[in-house]
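INTERNAL TRANSFER SHEET
From: sequence group
To: structure group
Subject: Mitochondrial carrier protein

Please process the attached sequence and return the structure record in the designated field. Keep the field labels unchanged so the import script can parse them.
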Amino acid sequence: MSQEHSAPPPRYLGFVAGMFSGVAKNLVGHPFDTIKVRLQTSDGRFKGPMDCVLKTWRNEGLRGFYKGCTPPLVGWVIMDSVMLGSLHTYRRFLKENFFKSDAKLPLSGHCIAGLMSGLTVSMVAAPVEQVKARLQIQYDGKTKQYTGPVNCVSQLIKQSGIRGIYKGLCSTMIFRTNFVFWWGSYEIFTQWFKTNTSLSNPAINFWSGGLSASVFWIFAYPADVVKQVIMTDDVKNPKFKRWIHAVKWVYETRGLKGFVRGFGPSILRSFPANAAALAAFEAVMRTLH
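Return from structure group:
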């Protein structure tokens, strides 16, 4: 994405490459994500990340770590296609219309494009992430409310209509405003590696993707906790009517520590999953252009 070409790549190419990014991210990152969501949404069930890992393995086996995998496998292919495709499009739009005098898009342009892509992909991400989260917190047969992603979507629509599957849209958009930090730092890391190392382009993409994702999660994590709490709230009798109510609930019931619960698995996941995703994206962009 940071490479300069004699002719810019076609706009559709970012959407195509984003599909490959979504597959790579899901395969590498989903087990970490399951542990993160379970720690964020449960009260007293787990003592910590390792206890969650051991109990999940003991009670559910390997399949437990991939619960709710289908929605993001399909969804992240779509989400990364929309996110990275729109990011590529917004960067090109800003470069052609607002930064014409610059040889390349400045850092501020990358930050603005990141913000816009985050808000855009929220429309796809909200329903996908809600279904994923609801399936991930089904710990055993006794508490199993949904038989699968289709059944989950069906029940949500039956209970609350289309609004049901878009529960948490506002919190998703708030969470994804932190894309400013992701794509701004991605550009900073990319340029630093190009200037100060002799790494190949794929290696630069890998390290920049992993490091920038870690920066993103450091800033965005509290908003992610609030988002998950809202998305797994009871549909018929919701506890939270507004985003701020969920923020107050987390603080009052868990204290400040509640906003970083599950951070360990999240930060461990962020580097390998997003490094693989960004490397896949850039590789496809280079290959097809």
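Handover comment: The chain has twelve helices and no strands. The first helix runs from residue 11 to 41.
Transfer complete.
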